[in-house]
Write a structure and sequence with these properties.
This protein is mainly alpha-helical. The protein has seven helices and no strands. Helix 5 packs across helix 6. It is globular and about 50 Å long. The two termini are 19 Å apart.
Length: 172
């Protein structure tokens, strides 16, 4: 399972090639996309700090429940303009205009409950290739990390994390 974003898709191709498992189906789901940084998308971080202040930008980027300003659907960066969304039947109203980590966790939880849990209950092994914030939200759930502590969880880049789950509880 991977997001619709190119870097995640390319990563899953490389992983499957390395495992010599190119034959295994890959499923893409927008709910595994990186967090929507709203109106900050496509903008220079330094300029955002100059405009809004370092404290506010840090809060938008790292807090649990403070989303950045929303992105306009007329923005050149609006994901709804991307043909991948339309081809998958994703409605504009389902695409977040801005998200906090709390919002990402809510979105990823729906994916986990509806897609991953049934696979795990059926005894399947799954690979999730995602992005920092959606992976942090899954780790938060699996490891029971508090809202405060999840903000300090840093994920290594390009290093897989293996979770072995109890067959009955589906907990690590």
């Amino acid at each position: 399972y991977t997001s619709l974003l190119c870097r995640s898709t390319k990563t899953v191709w490389l992983v499957m090639q390395e495992l010599m498992m190119e034959w295994v189906p890959v499923f893409k789901d927008w709910r595994l996309n990186e967090r929507s940084y709203g109106a900050l998308v496509g903008r220079n971080k330094k300029k955002c700090v100059e405009e809004f202040g370092a404290t506010k930008v840090k809060s938008w980027r790292r807090s649990w429940d403070d989303p950045p300003p929303p992105m306009s659907r007329s923005s050149e960066f609006w994901p709804g303009k991307d043909r991948r969304y339309a081809s998958l039947g994703i409605r504009d109203e389902d695409i977040p205009v801005a998200e906090s980590l709390k919002d990402v966790t809510r979105r990823t939880s729906v994916f986990w409950d509806c897609v991953i849990l049934p696979q795990l209950r059926a005894g399947k092994r799954v690979l999730i290739v995602g992005h920092e914030n959606n992976l942090r939200s899954i780790i938060k759930r699996l490891d029971g990390v508090s809202n405060e502590d999840i903000l300090n969880v840093e994920l290594p880049r390009a290093i897989p994390l293996l979770y072995e789950l109890d067959a009955k509880t589906l907990k690590p």
